[in-house]
């Protein structure tokens, strides 16, 4: 039973990883090509960076980092690796 | 060459040596068995060291020399491409994560191949995996050593042979005596050097360029394409750039040097910390190193050889002693990649081939001597090959990371999460992945990229199909974890 529970947690967290990667990709792609496909003359600049790059790569990176911090702090569960060895 | 540049590099090497020595003391006093200690650091990596060793192993010569050099030529489109690597920071640990760590302990696995051996219970899988690992990693390693030699050559003005010799001896000494722990802890130091070096150089380059808005004006004046996502000649397509999500993002799950790290951590708290640190550090280095490449353009126009952009701009915008510290970063990146590959190939030969098939009852002492001996021998062979790299190696290196991903991604990931995956699926997927990858490489060279995406994408899909079909059709069985 112990075993099932640990794998359940592991499976859930692998799915979280997959989900985060998909959202991350959509954000990265959406801003890069959504804003970046306009003619260069229409670009606006934020902190000196072209807007598409600022949102896609800089804000995107910050958001992913914050998400990972929240995941690690509140969502991911601690499991023991050791009990298994005792059980054998 | 400037002595002030060289002194920080020598101090850096001295610290690395000390860590090798310290790890060898740990090795002597360890109780967990020599193999586990030498090839996995006793499975007790904490969060910080784990994160840094993943980042540093993954961040190679291309992150610090080749990549920023290409960004110099192509502009922001290449920085966008480089940012696909941020995903590796969390993806590898979350996907392999807890299940891999639990199973690796349960199977008593020390190498990735140990894991595959128990999971698939097949000699063919083991030999196929060991062969692709040894061939591809060996080529990748040689290419990195050439990079290390060239970098020292360009910084010190020594002859290439001398430079390579210094580089080779430095790496060999700490890897041979200290094993995986030395590799991981030196990686942590090297990762720190990479972060600090990146930050210093970024600030210096922005100041030298007169601020970001100013640099942007210079770029726009030179060629407006440099600030678009499409590259300096408008030839970076969205499909091509996006396909790097497979090659340098999610596909990294299949690299053995990353997978082996996912079985070396102490507990889940280390893993959670590594997840956060790894993501932030990878993103920080990739974003800023590539930005430095682009920003270097108005400051130092007309550089022809991409690999020299970073060393040249560092020497231009920084005082010599600080340039020495900053240029320890690419050196650190190269060293931290080759050290991991060295210990991995050595573990594969000793554990996966010798102990598995040639002499299962080898004594502890014998294994120990063999491990030291094999690591030294491999290092020496790589050194000799790097002196004058044969065409075959350069050729194989082209396939190194893509080939490994094709070979391992599905047997590892589906082996972990899909009960119906079996050895027939694994064998089919490895063969399909590697063969179609190499074949497609030639097709793409001759005809342009199929579907406009990187060579790695189509074989990943084909090998997935092969894995699923063969697992279901040939002796379908449910695997109990």
Task: Explain this structure.
The complex is a heterodimer of chains A (88) and B (481). Chain A is mainly alpha-helical and 88 residues long. Helix content of chain A is 75%, strand content 5%. Chain A has one domain. Chain A contains three helices and two strands; from the N terminus they run αββαα. Chain A has a two-stranded antiparallel ribbon with strand order 1-2. The C terminus of chain A is likely disordered. With 481 residues, chain B is mostly helical. Chain B has a single domain, classed as Sodium/glucose cotransporter, CATH 1.20.1730.10. Chain B has 20 helices and no strands.
Summarize the structure.
The complex is a heterodimer of chains A (88) and B (481). Chain A has 88 residues and is mainly alpha-helical.
Secondary-structure topology with pairs:
The complex is a heterodimer of chains A (88) and B (481).
Chain A lengths: L1 H35 L8 E2 L2 E2 H25 L6 H6 L1
Antiparallel strand pairs in A: 1-2
Helix pairs in contact in A: 1-2
Chain B lengths: L2 H27 L4 H7 L6 H12 L2 H14 L1 H7 L3 H21 L5 H9 L2 H34 L3 H49 L3 H11 L15 H5 L1 H6 L6 H4 L8 H32 L9 H9 L2 H39 L5 H24 L3 H27 L5 H25 L9 H17 L8
């Amino acid at each position: 039973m112990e075993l099932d529970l640990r794998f359940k947690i592991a499976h859930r967290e692998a799915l979280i990883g997959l989900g985060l990667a998909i959202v991350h990709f959509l954000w990265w792609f959406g801003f890069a090509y959504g804003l970046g496909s306009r003619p260069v003359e229409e670009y606006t600049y934020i902190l000196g960076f072209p807007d598409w790059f600022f949102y896609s790569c800089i804000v995107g990176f910050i958001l992913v980092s914050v998400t990972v911090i929240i995941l690690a702090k509140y969502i991911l569960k601690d499991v023991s690796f050791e009990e298994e060895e005792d059980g054998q | 060459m400037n002595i002030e540049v060289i002194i920080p590099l020598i101090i850096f090497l001295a610290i690395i040596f000390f860590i090798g020595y310290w790890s060898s003391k740990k090795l002597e006093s360890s109780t967990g068995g020599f193999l586990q200690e030498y090839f996995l650091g006793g499975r007790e990596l904490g969060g910080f060291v784990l994160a840094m060793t993943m980042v540093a192993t993954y961040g190679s010569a291309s992150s610090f020399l080749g990549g920023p050099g290409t960004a110099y030529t192509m502009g922001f489109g290449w920085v966008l491409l480089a940012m696909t690597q941020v995903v590796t920071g969390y993806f590898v640990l979350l996907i392999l994560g807890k299940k891999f760590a639990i199973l690796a302990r349960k199977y008593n696995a020390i190498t990735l191949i140990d894991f595959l051996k128990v999971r698939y219970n097949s000699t063919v899988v083991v030999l196929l995996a060991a062969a692709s690992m040894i061939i591809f990693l060996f080529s990748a390693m040689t290419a990195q050593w050439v990079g290390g030699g060239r970098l020292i050559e360009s910084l010190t003005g020594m002859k290439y042979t001398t430079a390579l010799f210094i580089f080779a001896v430095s790496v060999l000494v700490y890897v041979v005596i200290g094993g995986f722990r030395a590799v991981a802890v030196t990686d942590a130091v090297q990762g720190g050097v990479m972060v600090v070096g990146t930050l210093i150089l970024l600030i210096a380059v922005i100041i030298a360029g007169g601020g970001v808005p100013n640099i942007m004006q210079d770029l726009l004046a030179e060629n407006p394409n440099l600030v678009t996502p499409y590259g300096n000649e408008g030839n970076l397509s969205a499909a091509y750039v996006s396909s790097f999500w497979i090659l340098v993002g999610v596909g990294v799950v299949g690299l053995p040097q990353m997978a082996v790290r996912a079985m070396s951590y102490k507990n889940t708290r280390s893993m959670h910390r590594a997840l956060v640190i790894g993501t932030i550090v990878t993103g920080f280095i990739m974003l800023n190193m590539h930005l430095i490449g682009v920003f270097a353009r108005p400051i130092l126009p007309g550089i022809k050889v991409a690999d020299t952009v970073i060393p040249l701009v560092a020497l231009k915008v920084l005082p010599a002693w600080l340039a020495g510290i900053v240029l320890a970063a690419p050196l650190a990146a190269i060293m931290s990649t080759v050290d991991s590959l060295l210990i991995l190939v050595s573990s594969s030969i000793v554990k996966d081939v010798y102990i598995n098939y040639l002499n299962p009852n080898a004594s502890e002492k014998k294994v120990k001597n063999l491990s030291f001996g094999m690591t030294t021998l491999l290092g020496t062979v790589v050194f000799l090959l790097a002196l004058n790299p044969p065409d075959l190696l350069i050729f194989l290196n082209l396939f190194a990371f893509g080939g490994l991903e094709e070979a391992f991604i599905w047997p590892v990931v589906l082996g972990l999460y899909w009960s119906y995956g079996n050895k027939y699926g694994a064998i089919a997927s490895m063969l399909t992945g590697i063969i179609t990858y190499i074949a497609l490489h030639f097709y793409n060279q001759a005809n342009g990229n199929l579907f406009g995406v990187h060579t790695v994408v189509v074989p990943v899909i084909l090998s997935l199909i092969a894995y699923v079909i063969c697992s279901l059709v040939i002796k379908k069985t449910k695997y109990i974890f």
